[in-house]
Specification:
single chain, 587 residues, alpha/beta, Aminopeptidase, 14 strands, carboxypeptidase activity, Peptidase_M28, Peptidase_M28B, PA_domain, M28 family peptidase
Length: 587
Amino acid sequence: MQDEDLKKSLLATISAAEMQKHLHVMSGLHRRSGSPDDFKAVDYIVDYLSGYGIPVQVYEFSSLISYPVGANLRTLVPTEREFHCKTRALSPSTPPQGIVAEVVYVPIKDGTPGILGDDSLSDDFQGIDVRGKIVITDRGGPDGVLYAQRAGAVGLINAWPSDEDVIHEMIASPVWGTPTPESASWLPKIPCVSVTKRDGDILKEMCNSGTVKAILRTETDTAWRKLRLPVAQVEGTEEPEKFVLVGGHLDSWYVGITDNATGNAASLEMARVFHQFRDRLKRSVRFAWWPGHSYGRYSGSTWYNDNFWLDLYDNCLAYNNIDSPGCAGADDYSKLTAMGELKDLVEETASMITNMECFTVRPTRAADQSFWGTGVPSMFFLMGNRPKEKSAQVGGSAGGWWWHSEYDILDKADIDILVRDTKIYSLAVLRMVADDILPYRYARLAREISETLASYQREANDSFSLELVMNLAGRFAEKAEEFDARVKKTNVEPSGARKVNEYLLKVSRCLIPVLYTEAGPFHQDLAISMPFIPGLYGARKIRTLGKSSSEFYYLLTKLTRERNRLALALREAIVYLDRAIAVMSGE
């Protein structure tokens, strides 16, 4: 970044007092999507931004939203005992009398229990008859419900993997956003509840000791509800149509201070600060506060992606996802989130602000990451984490045990950490909207592609060849190294820089939908774990299938098509990167 004075002035303007004010307001609002408190929060955002002269528009749309109402779990055999439990959003209600069935424990055969899912889950049910039974499992993600349902279970009990005495609110559906006629078939059809690890251990021991029968009752309030989505934009001066999208979910379980009132406060403060320096920005910053995150499986960000797809495709430079910053004790920045082309940017800015060595991981399929199909590079998701010994197995709040519970109140936020995290976000966004050439770097992305393909080829052995795409990945890596080296020492005229940036944007639009999705540009994959280059992931198991079996030829056909999809994306990315290099070379 060339303008050091702008950087220092903008970061110095970030105010702890302003964000503290926002947190106090949010601490009085239980922001269930589509509820009166949710709309009060929208009104507060609009009034605050309007007070600074920041243009803001509120969109209204209908979404399938689900509120958990209540649940009851009682064993009948071998003994009568009540277990405290909670049902989940978009879990179906049982009949008023509940369902009575045998309870079967399904242990995890491979992988790690958690709420984000695991590709090995389907193996858990092999050799275990769960038809007509209630499953108890350590799997906490929507895929747990999905595979139990497929196996014929009539209900699911999730025993939490970490031992906090809290039951975390959750959503059961794997359907990302508002369902389509096709994806509606994936909505949960069996009721599910959560219990603590302690109670889960008791139930599992009962199952291991003999027959267990239980009665399970659940009630949810699921309906089409009107949602409101506020969006504001701080205009740049040279290319106002180009923008970084800064988004975070507005809805919360209870008052949700660290998930995600702290994120809402950070976004509001960034809007105020960037507006103050708007005459020194080349490009724009767009801010959105998503509804439908916890109660509609990211339906707000998905609606926005669907309805502004062309604008996002043509103009969105990056998505800065803000979720759970500013948590008490969150001093570990070793797992920041960024796609490959933004890893250098995120690590550099975080290290500059924290004076720590910071590292990045690939984004997971969660938390309003709704823009992969559109080809928008993503940076951040969760921010810092609590130390491992003080961290629960939860999906946010920096690993805080209070996540998605009534205990996520003001004392769980740390305003000094929130200021630090907001500075990290702000510096990364500032680089995106003020640097002459966008701060994309491709060498690490290229290595990740090549390493992944090599891994898949080793697993496939001679059952399927990835030689075509591995060769193209090698050519892309050569161009990536050349680009990254050249951009560090190149000064380009403004018109040339714009041309370079257009080519770089095309690289992302080519690669991201293939590297991160199976559904492609216009649809959403399910909210379950997604491997890198998911379309070719099946290459890992093709050699385990009999070469004369239908399953082998089905998978071979799919892999061939996915190889073509990646080959085209890599070939086009090479062309665009080569054109960017040519412009920087003065050709």
